[in-house]
Design a protein that fits this description.
heterotrimer; A: about 550 residues; alpha+beta; D-Maltodextrin-Binding Protein, domain 2; Dipeptide-binding Protein, domain 3; 2 domains; 7-stranded mixed sheet; 4-stranded mixed sheet; globular; B: about 300 residues; mainly alpha; two-stranded antiparallel sheet
Chain lengths: ~550, ~300, ~290
């Protein structure tokens, strides 16, 4: 740099020269400042452009209210979806493909006999609300809680396959043999018998880990203050109105995109519909009432996500009753109903014709299996062979709840078809509590339900409903009992190879079909419409309300809200 | 006056007592064990021994009289029972819901009273005219049309079609507009009819004609002689029907998914959560008894011709 | 004493209400009686392929999701509504009148007991009482009638008692007692006819109220069971379709409104005709 002495030049000239020369450092400084401010402003604007931020308004349709936030006590799927946001367990499902993913357990080994499972937990996973780090003993505590009678836990059966679990549940011992802590971050689970689908079971979204300190602090009120290690933390639960959660900064998977989620209680489908169209909520589960309307609406039709769900709608028959034990009658009932017309005009295309019990979206579904076709003549022939006729019809009662898709309205829709085939039926409306209680007690003639409980494993899906009780036929309200079926299931539970297992599953499913164990009607189609500014919603076959909360984001213009 | 208040208050106690007993018998005894336990999460898995343990836990194996006394004792301490379904005490569940219902009932009551009295008086003053006729037609429609249907219509027009108001929700003041409006219509129609009849009766009394004859201005006549006398019967009806207003929230809350006591009761009923339903019903009864009590006190206070024996 | 205004207006008012109300009710009764002949389609059998169709020439008020004609369902639904109104009020009137006359005539302990029960019942909102009973009994048309019949007689009782009290003062009663006519005979032959008028008014107005409550219960899902064409139930069924098929909820509500308007007008007119102290409950303090 050339220096000019101020003494060699006149003041003005000096200034001129100085201006010229010193502008360079000044210039540089100015340019630097300008660049910095650009970066600063640009960075600020870029922050506005980011996917982070915003509040998601998610309406929940079922049940009229949320009973509890504790996924071990509450039965509805609403409980599970909120627990998904608040918690994580050892494993989780990819909600779209239903494959098992690591969650808090980052790796695992499966023992040779499918009896011993060793999980290695991530280090440094934090509980929400400052309850510290998640360790293997926290999982022991959580699982003991699931298997506790006093709790009261509704889902002990998820873990009853563990060694010593039954004794623990019945209060005979105070420690579960099959749970071993091998280290701060190493957990070993051992099952009583070899169980090839144990991993699928343990990934259930109800098994999120909970901190002992929080449970003991809140006692029975823990159900309103659920704490776990998920992407969000609970902000508040306004009973009957909404549950609000906010992003958990220390989530091991990184902070989720959304700032907040508001789960809104909106049992009236008309309200949800109106709220969605007004832009007040970000997604709306479409009921049969408005499904067609949205599919034809140019503004919304491309924003619909649909998926065949893991639920099968059936008319469950009480097979303990003598009159239902004639397979011809059961088959006649299956031939008598026109599934295509019913699905098109009663369910407004929001369902798929059912073949057997396994739904379309199940890995065990056999596309080559043929459903009962609509054949009134064949139905009548079978009924006549069984000794029934127009003057001497087969009388029975359908018990149903008030669900619009698979409740009493369905029974009323089925009636003309069945009555054309020498059946005579009466429908009875009951509340769902009474229906499940009666079903469990075997105190019914037939009832309409949406079955399967969205079980991910097809072996479980089938066996829960059709296996005789020794083999975990917990939901076998019909009283179906077939040794051939039980054999298939037993073999499947011991078959480690996936494809071979599916062969057995398909055989079991086909047996149910030929036996006409139930009247198979349709597989549920879930459909939801979302606002254009919401991204990340997936077609989730278990239940459309199960969404990957940490991966959902809003367009930047909507993030500010 | 004070002694009357005390006496009247004491009269409410046997009534409440009877209410509690009736509700206990109807809902804690008659449904039977199976129904009462239906909500417990463990029912699905329970073996017979486990079922027995659950029964003991819930106190269902105790003799009836003990259960009744336990229940009464609990009530005195503010324990409305335990809901097995949600594993929460009913009192915890109910508190915020009562507040939510009050947020509908009180504005609706105030609005309906004001509207009803004004319109009814107008009809009476201009009796025989078109104003009277049209107001009374509207009033008859108001008390005849089912409130829940009007609520559905309101929701259809304002929330669905015009999208001016939210169809449901809680927290923002706008959310309460439609439910309050739905409640107000029927109630104000009733008040209007009562007001009209009451004012008309008074307006034809001799002392009113006398006052007019004396040259008192119409406005003063209306105020000093007509209204002050007409207000008594209006007040009584208003008070008695206030209880109906509170009960009317039961259905309106369902239409708008308003998280109040009414939707709580309906949900409990539909889900067979008998303990919760019982608690809610007791609250409704208590509120009603209390409102009647207040109305009686106000009536006696306002009517100087009544002597308290 | 509360009276209406000048005789001229009274006549006009009485005639209008009575006439209009009577006309509406007669029409509805006719519709109910001749329903099978008037209804264009079956109320219970629907054609699924025509579900949710808008009002048209074939289906004047449209169809519901089962493909059933709304108009036919409304027509047949009038039978349910009228049945509820009639039977509940019949039960209420019988119980209320008997107890009210006994209380008013026999006085003393009987009166105290009956009035005590009445006061207790009147302390509670009808809707909640009805709901409680439906929880216990379970949803059905007959359970509604039982529930409302059992709890809604208190007001009738009070009115009957008030009438009995005023009639008892009359001379021919005193004369009859003096002659030695039995109490039962007096109550039945002399008092009852006098009481009938006011009780009829209460019953007419009460029928409207009962129908509204029954509709409300059905709307909530604890009332009449499907597939019966209960108007309240139809409004419930149409709620989900309010945007796409509003006719399902709209017309049944209109039907309920018309019927209740008719009953209210009729009751109003009858009350004016009889010049009855149906505001008796407002005098509760003065009479006790």
């Amino acid at each position: 740099m050339v220096r000019f002495s101020r003494f060699s030049l006149g003041k003005n000239e000096y200034r001129k020269v100085c201006k010229g020369k010193e502008r360079r450092p000044m210039q540089l400084f100015g340019i630097m400042l300008f660049a910095l401010s650009l970066v600063w402003v640009g960075g600020f604007a870029a922050d506005n452009q980011s996917e982070y931020g915003g509040t998601l308004a998610f309406p929940l349709g079922y049940g009229g209210t949320i009973e509890t936030l504790d996924p071990i006590i509450g039965s509805d799927s609403t409980v599970v979806t909120i627990a998904d946001a608040l918690g994580d367990g050892l494993l989780r499902y990819d909600l779209e493909t239903l494959e098992i993913e690591p969650a808090i357990a980052e790796s695992w080994e499966i023992g040779p006999n499918y009896k011993v499972y060793t999980f290695h937990l991530r280090h440094g996973v934090q509980f929400g609300k400052g309850y510290g780090e998640v360790t293997a003993s926290d999982f022991e505590y959580t699982f003991e809680r699931v298997l506790s009678f006093e709790n009261p836990s509704r889902f002990p059966h998820l873990l009853l396959s563990l060694e010593g679990a039954k004794d623990f549940y019945n209060g005979k011992v105070d420690h579960i043999e099959g749970i071993k802590i091998l280290g701060k971050y190493t957990l070993q689970l051992t099952t009583e018998n070899p169980d090839v689908i144990f991993m699928t079971t343990i990934a259930s979204n109800r098994l999120c880990v909970v901190p002992k300190a929080a449970v003991e602090k809140w006692g029975p009120a823990f159900g309103s203050h659920l704490v776990s290690a998920g992407p969000f933390e609970l902000v508040e639960w306004v009973r009957g109105s909404k549950v609000e959660v906010k992003a958990f900064d220390k989530y091991y998977g990184g902070r989720p995109y959304l700032d907040n989620i508001e789960f809104l209680v909106m049992p009236e489908s008309a309200s949800r519909d109106a709220a969605f169209r007004a832009g007040a909520v970000d997604i709306s589960m479409l009921s049969t009432a408005v499904y067609t309307n949205y599919k034809e609406d140019p503004q919304y039709k491309d924003l619909i996500i649909e998926v065949p769900e893991l639920w099968t709608r059936v008319l469950t028959l009480n097979l303990r009753e003598e009159k239902w034990q004639d397979v011809r009658v059961r088959q006649a009932a299956n031939y008598a109903i026109d599934r295509e017309t019913l699905n098109k005009y009663f369910l407004m295309d929001k369902a798929y014709v059912a073949t057997s019990f396994l739904p379309k979206s199940s890995p065990g579904f056999d596309p080559n299996l043929k459903p009962y076709e609509y054949n009134l003549i064949k139905a009548r022939e079978l009924m006549e062979a069984a000794g029934y006729s127009k003057d001497h019809p087969f009388e029975f009662t359908i018990m149903a709840c008030s669900d619009p898709a698979w409740g009493i309205a369905g029974g009323i829709a089925l009636k003309p078809y069945l009555e054309a085939a020498y059946f005579k039926l009466k429908t009875v409306l009951v509340d769902s509590s009474t229906m499940w209680a009666s079903a469990a007690a075997g105190d019914f003639d037939t009832y309409l339900n949406s079955a399967g409980l969205a079980k991910v494993s097809p072996v479980d899906f089938l066996s829960e409903v059709f296996a005789s009780t020794e083999l975990s036929g917990r939901e076998n309200s019909a009283g179906y009992s077939s040794s051939e079926f039980d054999e298939y299931i037993k073999a499947a539970r011991q078959e480690p190879d996936f494809e071979k297992r599916m062969v057995l599953v398909r055989k079991a499913d086909a047996l149910i079909l030929s036996d006409a164990a139930m009247v198979f009607w349709n597989y549920s189609k879930a459909a939801a419409v979302h606002q254009a500014w919401v991204h990340g919603f997936v077609a989730s076959p278990q239940d459309m309300i199960y969404q990957p909360w940490d991966k959902i984001w809003l367009d930047p213009e909507h993030s500010g809200a | 006056m004070l002694s009357y208040i005390v006496r009247r208050f004491l009269q409410t106690i046997p009534i409440l007592f009877i209410a509690v007993t009736v509700v206990f018998v109807l809902l804690s005894v008659l449904p039977g064990d199976v129904a009462l336990l239906a909500g417990d999460p463990r029912i699905g898995n329970a073996s017979p021994e486990a079922l027995q343990r659950i029964r003991e836990e819930c106190g269902l194996n105790k003799p009836l009289i003990i259960r009744y006394l336990d229940y009464l004792g609990g009530l005195v301490k503010g324990n409305l029972g335990f809901s097995f379904r949600t594993q929460e005490y009913v009192a915890t569940l109910i508190g915020p819901r009562i507040l939510a219902t009050l947020k509908l009932a009180i504005p609706a009551g105030v609005l309906a009273l004001s509207l009803g009295v004004v319109l009814g008086s107008l009809a009476a003053i201009f009796s025989g005219s078109l104003i009277d006729f049209s107001l009374m037609i509207v009033a008859v429609i108001g008390i005849s049309a089912p409130a829940f249907w009007l609520a559905v219509l309101l929701m259809y027009f304002f929330a669905v079609t015009l999208q001016l108001l939210p169809p449901s929700g809680y927290g923002q003041p706008l959310c309460s507009v439609l439910p309050v409006l739905s409640l107000t219509i029927g109630y104000s129609a009733l008040i209007a009819r009562t007001t009209r009849a009451s004012v008309l009766d008074v307006i034809n009394e001799d002392y009113v004609t006398t006052a007019r004859g004396k040259g008192v201005s119409e406005a003063r006549v209306l105020y000093k002689h007509v209204f002050r006398n007409a207000i008594l019967p209006i007040m009584t009806i208003a008070g008695l029907e206030m209880g109906s207003l509170f009960a009317g929230t039961v259905i309106i809350e369902k239409v708008f998914s308003w998280p109040g006591l009414g939707s709580f009761l309906v949900n409990s009923v539909l889900k067979r959560d008998i303990a919760a339903a019982q608690g809610a019903i007791l609250i409704y009864f208590s509120v009603f008894v209390f409102i009647n009590f207040l109305t009686d006190i106000l009536y006696v206070y306002a009517d100087p011709t009544i002597t308290y024996e | 004493m509360l009276t209406l205004q000048s005789p001229m207006n009274k006549t006009i008012a009485r005639n209008k209400s009575l006439l209009a109300g009577g006309l509406i009710i007669s029409l509805i009764i006719l519709v109910a009686v001749f329903a099978p002949f008037i209804a264009p389609h079956s109320p219970l059998d629907g054609n699924l392929r025509q579900s949710l169709s808008a009002p048209s020439k074939t289906f004047l008020l449209g169809t519901d999701r089962q493909g059933r004609d709304i108009l036919s369902r409304i027509i047949f639904g009038s039978r349910i509504a009228l049945l509820i109104g009639l039977l509940t009020q019949a039960v209420n009137s019988v119980i209320g009148t008997i107890l009210g006359v006994m209380a008013g005539f026999l006085r003393g302990k009987t009166d105290d007991l009956i009035m005590g029960v009445v006061n207790v019942i009147l302390s509670f909102p009808l809707m909640i009482l009805a709901l409680t009973l439906m929880v216990l009994l379970g949803p059905s048309l007959w359970n509604i009638i039982i529930a409302l019949g059992l709890v809604n007689w208190a007001f009738t009782c009070r009115v009957a008692r008030a009438e009995t009290l005023s009639v008892s003062e009359k001379e021919f009663i005193t004369a009859a007692t003096a002659i030695g006519v039995s109490k039962a005979r007096i109550m039945f032959r002399h008092i009852l006819p006098q009481v009938a008028g006011p009780v009829l008014v209460v019953a007419t107005l009460g029928a409207g109220n009962a129908i509204l409550i029954a509709a409300g219960l059905s709307f909530l899902g604890v009332g009449v069971q499907p597939p019966k064409p209960s108007w309240g139930l139809m409004i419930n069924q149409g709620l989900a379709y309010i945007r796409t098929a509003p006719w399902i909820s709209l017309f049944p509500g209109l039907a309920i409104s018309i019927l209740t308007i008719g009953l209210n007008l009729l009751g109003d007119g009858m009350r004016d005709v009889l010049d009855v102290k149906s505001r008796a409950h407002m005098n509760l303090k003065k009479e006790d």
